[in-house]
Write a structure and sequence with these properties.
Layout: E1 43-61, E2 63-64, E3 74-91, E4 96-115, E5 118-129, E6 133-141, E7 150-159, E8 187-198, E9 203-214, E10 226-236, E11 241-252, E12 267-281, E13 284-316
Antiparallel strand pairs: 1-2, 1-3, 1-13, 3-4, 4-5, 4-6, 6-7, 7-8, 8-9, 9-10, 10-11, 11-12, 12-13
Length: about 325
């Protein structure tokens, strides 16, 4: 397999919030897996990706509903999420590695505030740094068939409370906590992955799972713990073009705390994510994915997206 096929992307375990009551979200596509490949060569990598998630479909359980069909104090209308996620990763010769991920969020949210019989439109628009993640890993080649090399690894780290939790709109109203660019909490991350290359068929595949759990609440808010699991395949279509497809599962528990909305948080989702990657040089690629929901089951009423898209560039130096 072409050496550059190991570089689809490097964004390491970006936040994977599929839904929230107000619709704050990051794409759940795993753009990391071919970088965590059967190779354990020392070196540094980068990834820069742009995501667009248009959440304008209210949902309860597995059913789409109209805005306000299920009465709430706030009837959520839509949220546009435009995320720019930058990542840097370094692998040491010992097999240990370190990754840093910093998201910049451009978010536009609209809901209707039902106040004493009046319906008041409220909107928030902001561009803010989100919560940064620092993650370590340990990977090693597995003994077995030398013609089909494989790698397994452990992931561990923290999500830091770098994002603001006090963004306001033009009227001075503070946005709901699930809409804010940061949760205010420090979260622990733990996961594992497995990757295998099948050079004879120009195919590689991976599986990865991760859990995330906040240590304690912050200012009356604690995001629900979540589990993500990914399964993906890559096939070289030409010398420079690769075809990609993933299944992405996200299970999120309800938020808690005085400032949370537990009745309208928590979900279970499954997505399919086809994509392409194109080699620009020996050490650089561009890629793109479209993510389509296969199954979405949300607690209460939440905004969901019919699809999401991400494009990016990654490389090694």
């Amino acid at each position: 397999m072409n050496r550059t096929a190991t570089f689809v992307a490097l964004a390491f375990l970006v936040p994977a919030l599929a839904e929230a009551s107000c619709g704050s979200a990051f794409c759940t596509v795993n753009t990391n897996w071919t970088a965590e490949s059967a190779s354990v060569d020392a070196g540094s990598s980068f990834d820069l990706r742009y995501e667009f998630i248009k959440q304008d479909q209210p949902r309860t359980g597995t059913d789409d509903i109209a805005v306000g069909q299920v009465p709430r104090h706030h009837d959520e209308v839509r949220t546009y999420n435009r995320n720019l996620v930058a990542s840097f990763s370094h692998t040491f010769s010992s097999g240990w590695g370190l990754s840093i991920v910093a998201p910049l969020t451009d978010r536009d949210h609209l809901h209707i505030h039902n106040h004493h019989g009046a319906q008041l439109s409220e909107q928030w628009q902001y561009q803010e740094l989100g919560d940064v993640r620092v993650t370590g890993r340990y990977q090693l080649p597995l003994a077995g068939d030398a013609a089909n090399p494989s790698t397994a690894g452990l992931l561990f780290g923290v999500k830091l409370p770098t994002g603001s939790t006090s963004v306001t709109n033009a009227a001075g109203s503070v946005a709901e906590r699930s809409l804010q660019p940061g949760t205010g909490t420090t979260d622990l991350l733990l996961g594992a992955y497995y990757h295998q290359r099948l050079p004879a068929s120009d195919i590689s595949w991976f599986a990865q799972a991760q859990v995330q759990q906040a240590i304690a609440e912050h200012a009356g808010y604690k995001p629900g713990g979540q589990l993500t699991a990914d399964l993906g395949v890559r096939k070289n279509l030409t010398e420079k073009l690769g075809g990609l497809v993933q299944l992405n599962m996200v299970v999120k528990r309800r938020d808690s705390g005085a400032e949370a909305e537990p009745e309208d948080s928590g979900s279970r989702s499954l997505f399919v994510s086809p994509g392409l990657a194109y080699t620009l040089s020996d050490n650089m690629q561009v890629y793109g994915f479209i993510q389509q929901p296969l199954y979405q089951n949300v607690n209460g009423v939440q905004l969901t997206a019919r699809r999401a898209a991400t494009i990016g560039i990654s490389g090694r130096f």
